[in-house]
Amino acid sequence: MTSKYEEIQNLYDKIKDYRVDEDLLPSQLQLDKYIERLMGTQNMFMTESICFKRPFYSAKKDVVMGYTHTIIIFIDRGISIMMTNDMIHKIPILRSIIIDGNGSDKPLRLKGSYDQQIIDGPLLYISKLPLDSLYFDTPGEEYDVKRYSSTNNYGIADKPLEKYFMFDNVEEALINYKWYC
Known about the structure:
Largest sheet: 6 strands, mixed
Number of helices: 5
Order of helices and strands: HHEEEEHHEEEEH
Helix content: 25-40%
Strand content: 15-25%
Number of strands: 8
Number of domains: 1
Strand order of the largest sheet: 2-1-4-3-6-5
């Protein structure tokens, strides 16, 4: 069992059992289209875990996803976000669920075919979490990243950054990205 929610578990089961032909696993593109139609996702975002002002941006339709990615679908919002572990580490609740394996809901490892080989694809996590509950972590004392401004003393570094991003949570970052893009 992957989810305690029957609705989400049924979606996981459909995705896991999806085949192009009787025995042939779908390609990444076929699986992406199937998931998009099944979920009704309207917006897909990618993450930029080292961009202070814009941690999210709109994904192109032909994105290549691999083993190191996690796709998180917020079914109540029709949004999917593709993240790397670096970004997941910066969101404590997702880190706890996806990386540490805590909680009752677990992500599903997608499998597909490429050149007639079965390959492990990204993780898929279907969530009902509110986007504004996904707070960004703050760096520890060992985080020694400084911002350099062209307006101060000829490129002398300001003090170390106190936050990974200028926003406090995922919803705030997405709203500001969509507002200004």
